[in-house]
Amino acid sequence: MTETTKTHVILLACGSFNPITKGHIQMFERARDYLHKTGRFIVIGGIVSPVHDSYGKQGLVSSRHRLIMCQLAVQNSDWIRVDPWECYQDTWQTTCSVLEHHRDLMKRVTGCILSNVNTPSMTPVIGQPQNENPQPIYQNSNVPTKPTAAKILGKVGESLSRICCVRPPVERFTFVDENANLGTVMRYEEIELRILLLCGSDLLESFCIPGLWNEADMEVIVGDFGIVVVPRDAADTDRIMNHSSILRKYKNNIMVVKDDINHPMSVVSSTKSRLALQHGDGHVVDYLSQPVIDYILKSQLYINASG
């Protein structure tokens, strides 16, 4: 399978990140490694999207602080970025809305026409003579030539690093292959690019709680986008999925990370890191990176029991 036939993936993690822990970053790394090992995916970006202040969770510090801590946590990563869009909205946004925002944004920043892979489609071969000027598929006045796959992915990478956000689920980039030499026709290729929700098994389990999630949103999240799950504390993900009709229905869209790391991902816990900070526990270094610890101490966050 060549790189152009593999599914290109952007991992999106939504959450409080109160504060962001080493475990959150490890989730990205483990998910990327696992998807690469399947031979079917290429992960080209990761997005950390902190929740809006109005989410109302007890002890949630201002998004101003959480954004800075997230940026400090990923400052040495060449593929994970922090997206402030959720925090900058007037109110709390659903996970479904965040996914849809990034899909729409990806369409805009690439300038590509994207078609939903759920709609039956074939790689188009356009029967137009080479000496005619076809209607351009790649709508971007700043790009003087027809883009190859490398150019498309390069543009996506630039957008990730510049504005720290992007987006489409099971959707495809369609573009002219400038290297094709097909005589009287111009060959078009497709690169499938998906945004997958990255989460722990605790979020997956929350899908099974009646009334907690809007069922229409669940259909979109799991059915249109898909989920990559990193198990936490030896969770039985098969059992969890069997407890939800929607999870069972879209089981093929749920990828559970299976690797050689058997220890529980307790270092993901923001709650444990806050308790360690409040108690002056030196083990806080097991949970948080040093730049995040330094910022917390400087800003006097999480010092009292309420926050």
TrEMBL record:
GO biological process terms on file: 'de novo' NAD+ biosynthetic process from L-tryptophan; cytoplasmic translation; NAD+ biosynthetic process via the salvage pathway; NADP+ biosynthetic process; negative regulation of cytoplasmic translation; nicotinamide metabolic process; nicotinamide riboside metabolic process
Domain Cytidyltransferase-like residues, every copy: 12-105
Family annotation (SUPFAM superfamilies): Nucleotidylyl transferase
GO CC, any one term: cytosol
Cofactor(s) this protein requires: Mg(2+)
Alphabetized CDD domains for the sequence: NMNAT_Eukarya (cd09286)
EC code: 2.7.7.1, 2.7.7.18
Locations listed in the record: Cell projection, Axon; Cytoplasmic vesicle membrane; Golgi apparatus membrane
Stored Pfam families: CTP_transf_like (PF01467)
Pathway(s) served: Cofactor biosynthesis; NAD(+) biosynthesis; NAD(+) from nicotinamide D-ribonucleotide: step 1/1; Cofactor biosynthesis; NAD(+) biosynthesis; deamido-NAD(+) from nicotinate D-ribonucleotide: step 1/1
Catalytic reaction annotation: beta-nicotinamide D-ribonucleotide + ATP + H(+) = diphosphate + NAD(+); nicotinate beta-D-ribonucleotide + ATP + H(+) = deamido-NAD(+) + diphosphate
Subcellular location, principal: other
Molecular function GO labels: ATP binding; nicotinamide-nucleotide adenylyltransferase activity; nicotinate-nucleotide adenylyltransferase activity; protein ADP-ribosyltransferase-substrate adaptor activity
Keywords, comma-separated and alphabetical: ATP-binding, Cell projection, Cytoplasm, Cytoplasmic vesicle, Golgi apparatus, Lipoprotein, Membrane, NAD, Nucleotide-binding, Nucleotidyltransferase, Pyridine nucleotide biosynthesis, Transferase
Membrane topology category: Lipid-anchor
Assembly information from the UniProt record: Monomer.
Family the UniProt entry places it in: Belongs to the eukaryotic NMN adenylyltransferase family.
Protein name as it appears in the record: Nicotinamide/nicotinic acid mononucleotide adenylyltransferase 2
